[in-house]
Amino acid sequence: MNGVNLETSRLLLRRFEMGDLEDLYEYACRPEVGPAAGWKPHESRRETEQILAGFIHGTEVWAVVLKETGKVIGSVGLHGDSHRSSSPEVKMLGYVLSPDYWGRGIMTEAARRVISYAFEERGVQLVSVSHFSFNSRSKRVIEKCGFTYEGTFRRCFLRYDGEWLDECCYSMTREEYFLEGAEKFC
């Protein structure tokens, strides 16, 4: 990523900044957000500040900013895939969005832009993505982006609260991306 900004009609995807603390905390503390992604809701601004510092110093996560308001409403990133090769040519898509913006196609728009970046600008060979079996909203984003379902790892993720979760896994190869029509991703 290295400081690359990405845009869509409604969104700016950019590096996080310390000034994003309040916006990030606003959605990260909500009980419907973190557990769906496997992490506990943030209990304090201090906890959010520590996570934010990691985002700022890392190179894999973009802040999802609504152009209309300038507000950070989520994040999207390309990470190493823990189920596959550690090659930089294989990436895993991850994302989170404030519930205030669910159901508007915003995360699909952001995810498609990042997928386009991965294949067209980074030369990635495969992008994977997964969701926990109960997370139907994330499943819908994945389906709208055109990923292929690979299977479900049963009880493969131990969440912070001690619950074992099933992880539904998907992928898209570079060839599939270009075959399906890259123009729909921009």
From TrEMBL:
Keywords assigned: Acyltransferase, Transferase
Domain N-acetyltransferase: 11-175
Domain of life (superkingdom): Bacteria
GO molecular function, one term: protein-N-terminal-alanine acetyltransferase activity
Listed InterPro entries: Acyl_CoA_acyltransferase, GNAT_dom, N-acetyltransferase
Pfam families linked: Acetyltransf_3
CDD domains in the cross-refs: NAT_SF
GO cellular component: cytoplasm
Entry-linked PANTHER family: [RIBOSOMAL PROTEIN US5]-ALANINE N-ACETYLTRANSFERASE (PTHR43792:SF8), GNAT FAMILY, PUTATIVE (AFU_ORTHOLOGUE AFUA_3G00765)-RELATED-RELATED (PTHR43792)
Family note: Belongs to the acetyltransferase family. RimJ subfamily.
Protein's UniProt name: GNAT family N-acetyltransferase
Species annotation: Candidatus Merdivicinus excrementipullorum
